[in-house]
DNA sequence: GACTATACGGGGCGACCGCCCCGGTTGTCT
DNA sequence: AGACAACCGGGGCGGTCGCCCCGTATAGTC
């Protein structure tokens, strides 16, 4: 059973063009962008888009998976950093500023988009795993309160992202996000005074 | 110039029915609900909805204004409470849990809905004014950090709402919201230990 | 350079939704 | 009770968008 056949050159080129246009379009305006608009920006016909990605969700997923994989790589790097606390919080900031410029990620995290397929679920599971390790390490180092779990933090990341988008601050873009993340720090004065 | 003519009895009854149905529909699913669905739930024809509210935004606004007015009343009450800090934070929690059950408010705050009319803007300005007073009082009492303004707090309310919706906790529905609001408290250990 | 499979493009279908109009009905006032 | 005006209901129009089909062009192969 030949599951894979090499794509023709022009087909591969068009596929890349579509993905590039979709990246920008979804990043700028979220999942609401019409497919025809993406096709127009990519310089191909609407039919071509549909052939490469049978449904709109499929295209959206392809873009989101790319971003999630990038985040997973970032999280792995953060896990190798020395200082547990700063690595954790820096990664949180990175997630929000990343998703800030990429509306699609926010849509995906919020689940506003659609029912995502198995590919996305697998990548998301990977990210969650690394992320949980990062969190646990920060909690052991007593820089993050211990009464929150990974899902809580994920919700708070989405929250910070919302705040940031609501009140775009050009001079200090991460100000509100950093403020919100402060609520994750432990309560005891000793730990707080260390930051 | 007779600007006002008393509405006929059945017209007034239908108007109330539509508003009631719209309240529930918008609260449950946000602004995305089709007008025909609201008409169906209200037990009237789609044309009737359109006659009472010339556009969809008009109906949405009518519902949102009701909620904003309620919130404004709550804020005024909170301003008369004795303890500045608990009044402020209790009002924040109230806002989020209110908006939690009312998707429409979240849409309105986030501006996701549409360009709102002058009526909404006026009510929103009222609420902002009272809210700013509430915040300033809490800041003077040293229970809220002084490097945030009302717009920051509004963004954070929206953020807390997002977190709460993301991770619905039936046993402690306000847990995440309260957690997020903690980031508004001052940093110095003395003030923090008082809570 | 010719032949075949593969891919392209754009026109079009169906669904959805907001908005509007018209024939019939019902409330209201004398 | 009768007459008039206000109101109701539902069908329909126009626009949008996702999805698909088919005639044509083109890349890859001998």
From TrEMBL, chains A, B:
Cited PROSITE patterns: HTH_TETR_2
Superkingdom of origin: Bacteria
HTH tetR-type domain ranges (all copies): 12-71
Keyword DNA-binding: yes
Alphabetically ordered keywords of this record: DNA-binding, Transcription, Transcription regulation
Residue ranges of coiled coil: none
Record-linked SUPFAM superfamilies: Homeodomain-like (SSF46689), Tetracyclin repressor-like, C-terminal domain (SSF48498)
The entry's DNA-binding region: 34-53
Keyword field contains Transcription: yes
Protein's name according to its UniProt entry: TetR/AcrR family transcriptional regulator
Native organism: Yinghuangia aomiensis
Taxonomic lineage of the native organism: Bacteria, Bacillati, Actinomycetota, Actinomycetes, Kitasatosporales
């Amino acid at each position: 059973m030949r599951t894979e056949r090499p794509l023709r050159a022009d087909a591969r080129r068009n596929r890349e063009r579509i993905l590039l246009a979709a990246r920008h379009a979804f990043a700028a305006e979220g999942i609401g962008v019409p497919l025809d608009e993406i096709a127009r920006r990519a310089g191909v016909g609407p039919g071509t888009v549909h052939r490469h990605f049978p449904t709109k969700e499929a295209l959206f997923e392809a873009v989101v998976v790319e971003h999630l994989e990038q985040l997973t790589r970032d999280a792995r790097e953060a896990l190798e950093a020395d200082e547990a606390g700063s690595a954790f919080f820096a990664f949180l900031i990175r997630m929000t500023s990343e998703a800030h410029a990429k509306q699609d990620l926010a849509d995906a995290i919020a689940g506003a988009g659609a029912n995502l397929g198995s590919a996305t679920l697998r990548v998301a599971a990977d990210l969650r795993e690394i992320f949980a390790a990062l969190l646990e390490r920060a909690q052991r180092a007593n820089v993050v309160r211990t009464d929150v779990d990974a899902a809580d933090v994920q919700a708070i990341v989405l929250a910070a992202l919302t705040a940031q988008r609501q009140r775009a601050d050009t001079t200090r873009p991460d100000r509100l996000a950093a403020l919100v993340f402060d609520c994750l720090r432990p309560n005891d004065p000793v730990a707080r005074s260390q930051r």
